[in-house]
Each structure stands twice: as structure tokens, then as C-alpha cells.
Amino acid sequence: MLRILATLTLAVCALGTGMRAAADQGQTPAQTVGQTPAQPAGQTPAQPAGQTPASGQAADPRAALLKRLPAGSKLESLRPSPIPGMYEFMQGAEISYLTADGKYFLDGNIYDMDSRENLTEELRTRARLALISAVPESEMVIFGPKNPLYTITVFTDVDCAYCRKLHSEMAELNRLGVRVRYMFYPRTGPNTDSWRKAEVVWCSPDRNEALTRAKNGVQLDMSKTCGATPVAREYALGQSIGVRGTPAILTERGDYISGYMPPRELVQQIKDLQLAKR
């Protein structure tokens, strides 16, 4: 989110300059941006007055806003929000809001006051689930009982103290019916010891055994490499999901649980989240 804010700060400054220039020429801000305010969700934005698209179709008012968003942003990342005149901007599972005139950027949650539902968090949950579901289990290190009751996906760092504590209780987690799917998230980033340890674990003949040894502080043979590993992809995925620390735990429904919990408390939290979704 910080990288989005930094980029958008520059964008809003540029937009403000353009709006002032337009005012000097007798134009309105809406004419400068080239769009009308967003319509409610599910409706097609209206064509700006007096504008004739070259293609013969109504111009998409998001096109002008897209130029002011971070590089690589896509048109489908910007769509009408539940509030008229405001767009949702999604990068991975990170969601922010932008007014249709491009003047204001908001980082926060939108609530439905009738249902008291956090509409923004619901979007984040669906986005996280879609991102995780796209990763095959063959790219994960999995510890689980034969007949699991719950499955969690954990972004882990080999050297993280609370990640190690969680892993030391794996037998209890499995006994309680929890299946743990590990993905790598070395907090120190590329070209660090934690990153290389994750790659060595992946390149080991028995990844489960190697990960357990690494989390127990056993020295790994750092020469054991095997070329391509999923570490970089999973690290990038964690950033898209919004991981800021480890362990970062995601439920089967995409709920985010930040940090370590003792096994019984973790199971209760999963149950509570499931009930809340009903």
C-alpha cells in the first residue's frame, strides 16, 4: 500500500497542475480529465458531453485515470465502487479508492450501514482466495493429517521465531485436523541467508524434513541448489496479498490471520471466521 500511495502522490500532484492550467484556459476540471463521474456499480459510465469516440463507441472514462496510476495498472483494476462518483482500484488483494475526477485517493474500508458488512474486506478476501487458488499444491510444502478438517496456507520465513514456534506445534495442529500448506516468504528479501535457505529447502529430496531441520536451526548445506524454485513467485504473491510479517495465515475462504496463535486458539479463530461467513 505504501508503494501505491507514493506513486499516486506524484500522480495527484500532476493532476492538480493540469487542472490549474485548464482553469486558466476557461475549462472545467471535468473537461481536463475527460470524463464524467462514475456511475453506480453495474451501470455503464456515460459518454462525456460533446465527445465523439473514434471507434464509434462511448469512451471509457477510466482511460484518463489509468494514466495517473502506478505503471502496469490495468483498466480492469479500476471499476465503479458502491459509492457513485468513486472507483475501486485493486492491485492484488490491496484495495483503495479514487474519485472519478482523479482528485482524491482514499485508503480505507467501505461499510454497508444497513448490513454492517465491510464491503472492502469482502473484496480483499475474494481476491486473496483467487490468488492462492491459482498456485498448485505441487509448489507448496504440506504437512497434514489423513482426514483434515481445516486447511490453512501459511507464508513462512525459515528464520522467523514465531514461524518456528508454529512449526514446533505441527503435531498438535495435525491432531486437531489442521492441514498446513507452506509457501515461502523470506522477510529479508532476495539474496539473503533466509532466501537461500528457502531455496535449499525446496531443492532437498525431502522438503518436509529439510524445512523442519531448518526451522530447528540445523545448519543446511547451502551448496544444494537446483535451479528454478518457487521462492521468488511466492514472495511476490505474498506482497500482492498484503503480507507484512510472518507467519501470515490464510484460511480456505481467504480470511487473513496475522501472526502466531497457539493451535487451539487458531482452530477456534478458523471456526469463528467460518461462522461469520454464514
Q: CATH architecture of the largest domain, please?
A: 3-Layer(aba) Sandwich
Number of strands: 11
Shape: globular
Give the class from helix and strand content and strand pairing.
Answer: alpha+beta
Low-confidence stretches: 5-53
Helix-strand blueprint:
Blueprint (H helix, E strand, L loop, with lengths): L1 H23 L4 H5 L28 H5 L11 E3 L5 E6 L2 E6 L5 E2 L4 E2 L4 E2 H15 L7 E3 L6 E7 L4 H8 L1 H6 L2 E7 L8 H11 L3 H9 L15 H11 L6 E3 L5 E3 L4 H14 L2
Parallel strand pairs: 8-9
Antiparallel strand pairs: 1-2, 2-3, 3-4, 5-6, 7-9, 8-10, 10-11
Structure explained in plain terms:
The longest helix has 23 residues, at 2-24. α7 (193-203) packs antiparallel against α8. With 278 residues, the protein is of the alpha+beta class. A hairpin with a 5-residue loop joins β10 (248-250) and β11. Helix content is 38%, strand content 16%. It has a 5-stranded mixed β-sheet with strand order 7-9-8-10-11, with helices on both faces. It has a 4-stranded antiparallel β-sheet with strand order 1-2-3-4, covered by helices on one side. It has 2 domains: 2-116, no CATH class; 134-276, Glutaredoxin. The chain has helices at 2-24, 29-33, 62-66, 119-133, 161-168, 170-175, 193-203, 207-215, 231-241, 263-276; strands spanning 78-80, 86-91, 94-99, 105-106, 111-112, 117-118, 141-143, 150-156, 178-184, 248-250, 256-258.
Please give a quick description of this structure.
The protein has helices spanning 2-24, 29-33, 62-66, 119-133, 161-168, 170-175, 193-203, 207-215, 231-241, 263-276; strands at 78-80, 86-91, 94-99, 105-106, 111-112, 117-118, 141-143, 150-156, 178-184, 248-250, 256-258. With 278 residues, the chain is of the alpha+beta class. The model is unreliable at 5-53 (pLDDT under 50).
